Amino acid sequence: MLFERQAVSGETVSRSRKIRGGSGGPKRNRTLIMVAIIMGALMISLVLVLPSLRRSDSGTVTQVTPSSHSAPVNKTSLGNADAKVKMDVWEDFQCSACVFYTRNLEAQILQTYVDTGKVFYTFHFYPFIDGGQGESHDAANAAMCAAAQNRFWDYHDTLFANWQGENMGSFTRPRLTTFAQNIGLDMTAFNPCFQANTYSAHIQQDAEAGAKLGVPPTPGIFVNGKAVISSAGKDYIPSFDDISRAIETALAGP
After folding, report:
1. CATH 3.40.30.10: does it fit domain 73-252?
2. pTM score, two decimals?
3. Coil, strand, or helix at residue 68?
């Protein structure tokens, strides 16, 4: 799209020069030509620079109250590691369905099953929306840098609270850094961790493990290794009742 917009600007400038070339003497022609060239250059510069300017600042950031979990916290996991039921969820922070799941279902699951010691809950990364190289990956890496300070869940909540759409600039690097500052992370540790893409291999391993289980779609929800499928069909997000049935079945099993 960028190249197409540049071409249009170039054609506009060329037509202006041609039209203006029919009046006035050589000096006036040279002046008009110079003005046209400068205007054309400015137009092309705006096409190139404005998108990056719009995405470079932190913009409006929603602050989140730090999570208060009664269950033990271990980086991307919550709950009793010896619990009979293990629930694993693969998500992309840019995924709209993941946003819905997190905002509408996750807290109820944590309160009902994780805080009570029945379920050990683990978040896994599956950044795929932008090919795993842009905002999805950067958000995952930043979240792991927060996890290194055992603040993953606060950062996780902040990411989903600040989601504005897929590939819409929600998780630019300046914003991801601002999120870390807002929840009070040690920035002398976070910044080098984030800038070095420290957890790239971990994120890739998570994604590969999810793919072997059948992820995507996301969120990919598994209870004791078995996918939880919505009663409305595989293309739908499982409801709380769907997830609860899978957990209760696992709890009742051998």
Report:
1. yes
2. 0.76
3. coil
